[in-house]
UniProtKB/TrEMBL annotation, chains A, B:
Source organism per UniProt: Arthrobacter terricola
Domain Aminoacyl-transfer RNA synthetases class-II family profile: 113-357
Self-association state and partner proteins as the record states: Homodimer.
GO molecular function, one term: histidine-tRNA ligase activity
Protein name: Histidine--tRNA ligase
Enzyme kind, highest EC tier: ligase
One GO process term, biological-process aspect: histidyl-tRNA aminoacylation
Domain of life from the UniProt record: Bacteria
Any Gene Ontology CC annotation: cytoplasm
PROSITE patterns, alphabetized: AA_TRNA_LIGASE_II (PS50862)
Residues given in the record as L-histidine binding sites: 94-96, 124, 138, 142, 288, 292-293
């Protein structure tokens, strides 16, 4: 099934592949709802001003303009494509910025802390490459508070995501967690105050290695040998338990913010050791590019597929959403559904047992039997059994082949005397059956997703 | 809950409203799958050339361009916004044109006749008005054949849609069905050969009335008084049974195509009288604006809400998709989900029993009991009971208020001795409970959608 998208960066699935994606989406939805997250969707379109509020991402945004503008088209309604106009329309590039806007707009109607999940497509005009599409689906959970948000939600969000990912047909994964306060406090403690600059350099660690990062820190941020060395020593720390705390303290740096970050990260790891053992580690090299994070930051790798990049990222943002003096701090994580599904399909981690929902094809004895066949089908559907009726009274062999090509397990026959039989076309077994009571096995009732 | 969208034409729902929309979407999906339709999604983006292939719709299309173009951006990758370029990218305005493209591209991987459902957002840059948004969700079912497609699918599609709409929390509805062959054959039979022209005039019947349509037919198409009168007599025919056939024949027009159309429409109405009584009528005024329809055409009104416009439209298209000499005729219908949901919400045809999926809030006795509370929650979730844990050990009154504001029916308490109790906060009744076995009533387990 290896096909090439007809438009580079815009993947589309075949029906059998889509069933795997649906399984992933249904599983995520179920897990999120079990944890009390409410569904919302936001419009695909934001104003450019809203999207570029945090800067540094304008290269990725798709602007909109109406192909044939009305003469009376007004600004801010997509009638103009003036890129300097903050009211011009563009497609959202993630679900966090639109969610922040939604929260501010609807604050009067929401109960805080407000927890929501949001599963939608997003668009980025980047050059497509493996694991990086221009249109892709994200599945986000976030909790947002009014004024304040207990840190416990940082812990909870990580646990919910670990549970959600564990339910998917994917290899083992690791949430790699860091804390911006910890990093910023540490850098400040050693005399490096340009936190975004240091984070940008540290973010390149996996790509260019520690020597080159040290060079960057020295050349671009004026760090001394010792400062660069300490920053790199911090970034080298990782632990599956809370031992990272002692390792950081052993570096001898004192700072209040560092201490606050250490305690926060310790809480996350402590809970994870107990409730999601082996799934989470403290990794003090995690930086996250976008700059709205203020505490917890998370990236997630599939073990053995690290080159795929992060399949789930996010963190705490205390200042993304505000309305006058009113602040709405939040914490959330975003699963890259399309990236995951692409990998599941290309590696055949999971496959669908058939290409259609149909469990039973009702065959036609002759062309006049269509209505009677629909009666049989209606009875089966009434008990939740997905059923199709043949459109033509072709030879039975051809009608069976119709089912076989789609993986439909059962074909139903009604003879001229009204006698019903159902055939399992995999075994050839054919038995008498009553449309009012016959049922397939639970295994055959719905499409099954089988994991490799 | 009457709010104004912050961007005109781009509606967004509150969590409690979204639950109603989810109910509609889940119900449609379930019905479609019971009838063997497979899910697919197509990319939101098509090339302008693909979208404008059928003409007459360019005014509605949103083109895309990257806000900050790379110098090396190549044509056809959204790097340019040259509106004359057929490789430029734009958002799809319906799901039929993208589906036709998908079928042609993936013909080698699909089993024909191929039946799919597709539920996605579409975009039209029109001036927003009541019932007409710029971003809205459509739910489509189509069956497409390879070379030929039995007419029976026209009948089946109408019946499936009638069943799907009957399952929604909406007022009574009517599928108004006509047939292009019938209309075209009739016009030809009376000497009017510009079928699109006549259809365009007839399409204005409800807006401008029969006198003005007669004038149009005469002034723009050169029709005689008698031709205009006959065309209007045809358009005035409607019947809930197959009596329309006699009414048409009584007009005395002879034409082979007319005869073919009469027989097709008769089959649809005959089946509908039996299988969806009262839901379908032959309405010979139905024209449909877009011109890719070649046989059956359908519009649907909500009884008592006719001014809302059609909530479900479509028909047979024999020439929309082709690959060289290979043709893929199809028939399908598209439900305007956003239009329906807007009306359901504004008229309160249905409401959600609570604003969150959560059935149980586990209260905290003290701040150290969070982990034990998570254990209780995990046990409940393990039996499918959506559960949240309080984030802070506030006074019980405050924790109960947290649940009450969201409509969460139950609050769970565990005292310092590990004794569990659960309180129904609507009745105040509080009883001993075991987290390993307690269950809410089936009514309270999930959010209920109650209809007015």
């Amino acid at each position: 099934m290896a096909r090439t998208a007809s438009l580079s960066g815009f993947p589309e699935w075949l029906p059998q592949e889509r069933l795997v994606e649906l399984h992933v989406l249904d599983t995520l939805r179920k897990t999120f709802e079990l944890h009390g997250f409410a569904s919302i969707e936001t419009r695909a379109v934001e104003t450019v001003g809203q999207l570029l509020r945090k800067g540094e991402i304008d290269k990725e945004v798709y602007g909109l303009s109406r192909l044939q503008e009305d003469d009376d088209a007004s600004v801010g309604e997509g009638g103009k494509s003036d890129k300097g106009d903050p009211n011009a329309l563009a497609l959202h590039f993630d679900l966090t910025v639109p969610f922040a806007r939604y929260v501010v707009e609807n604050a009067g109607y929401l109960a805080f802390p407000f927890r929501r999940y949001q599963i939608q497509k997003v668009w980025r005009g980047e050059r497509p490459q493996e694991g990086r599409a221009r249109e892709f689906t994200q599945a986000d959970i976030d909790v947002v508070g009014d004024g304040e948000l207990p840190f416990r939600y940082d812990v909870e969000i990580a646990l919910v995501i670990a549970e959600a990912l564990s339910a998917l047909p994917i290899p083992d994964f690791r949430l790699r967690i860091n804390n911006r306060k910890l990093a910023e406090g540490f850098y400040r403690g050693i005399g490096l105050t340009d936190t975004p600059g240091v984070l940008r350099s540290i973010d390149k660690l996996e790509k260019i290695g520690p020597e080159k990062v040290a060079e960057l820190l020295k050349s671009e941020l004026g760090a001394s040998d010792e400062q660069a060395s300490l920053a790199l020593q911090l970034a080298a720390i990782r632990s599956e338990d809370t031992s990272f705390v002692e390792q950081v303290r052993a570096l001898g740096v004192k700072d209040d913010l560092l201490e606050e970050g250490l305690i926060e990260l310790e809480q996350v790891i402590e809970a994870a050791v107990q409730r999601a053992p082996g799934k989470v580690l403290a990794d003090l090299s995690i930086a996250r590019g976008l700059d709205y994070y203020t505490g917890t930051v998370v990236e997630t790798v599939l073990v053995g597929h690290e080159q795929l990049g992060s399949i789930c990222s996010g963190g705490r943002y205390d200042a993304l959403a505000s309305k006058g003096n009113r602040k709405f701090p939040g914490v959330g994580l975003s699963i890259g559904v399309t990236r995951l599904v692409s990998r599941i399909l290309s590696q055949e981690f999971a496959t669908a047992s058939r290409s259609v929902p149909t469990a039973v094809l009702v065959a036609l004895n002759n062309d006049d039997s269509w209505s009677a066949a629909q009666d049989v089908a209606a009875q089966l559907r009434g008990r939740g059994i997905a059923t199709e009726v043949a459109a033509k009274a072709e030879k039975f062999g051809k009608q069976i082949k119709f089912a076989d090509r789609r993986g439909i397990p059962f074909v139903w026959f009604t003879d001229d005397d009204g006698k019903h039989q159902v055939k399992d076309i995999r075994t050839g077994e054919q038995v008498d059956a009553d449309p009012a009571s016959w049922e397939p096995s639970a295994e055959d009732l719905h499409v099954r997703i089988t994991t490799a």
